[in-house]
Input
Amino acid sequence: MLILICLIWSGNYFAIKRSLAYIDPNTLALFRVLLGGLVVLAAGRVSFAGVTKRALAWCAILGLFNSALFLVFLNRGLTTVNSGVAATLVYTQPLIVALGSPLAGEKLTKTKLFGVGAAFAGVVIVFLPSLSGSSPSGGDFYELGAAISWAISILLFKKWNTTLDGFTVTGLQSVISSIFVLPFVFLGAPFLTPNIQLWGYLGYNILLGTGLAYVIYFTVLSRMKPSQFSSYLFLVPIFTILLQSVFTLSWPSLYELVGSLLVASGILIANAFV
Output
């Protein structure tokens, strides 16, 4: 299921980047969380009978960090940063999670830290040509903000230790997060150019990127240690590169092959003694 999440999210950078030609980043975030959340609640036939006020408060906190701030920062960063650099910066998240995992009750070993570090180094190697040819910009800081916000949400979710199912958590935190996204929409410069391309990209983001992927995400995260879970997410930028090679009928570069091997090795090391 983790591999499926990584495959779905590997296409997200492409879908978001293309969407931004027809919609502003804040409105895109609003559509994704609100419509994605409603689809999940309907598909899961969620009953709110067992949802307490405490659970709603936790979903609101998760929605703020996991959906609202993460997507606003991610989308805004992609307006100025290329997908390769964005992927590298956002996927510093597993490193942040590994360093903060003791806060969620996980023992951080040298082996886990080494494995996560090796996997991150692999991602950097894959995107080294893109990184070396770019200079720091405001978009870089937005992507790092997205990584930090995402890492915080993972650690908070593990502290919550809820018994709610993945459909309920995903749907509620997504819908509630739309409240936090609205001020960004009103304070920004919203625009929308409806066309079939935009609806296609939105469909991918809403049904797969938010709906299916996040239901699996919260289901699996509830059963795994935070650093163990996050280490697999290094596969997302790697899959993005490999899929691009398949679609363009080109061989991966030496950087991509070496980096991918290092990512795979790092994930195996990080999960060897769990």
Remarks:
- The chain has a mean pLDDT of 86.
- The longest helix spans residues 196-221.
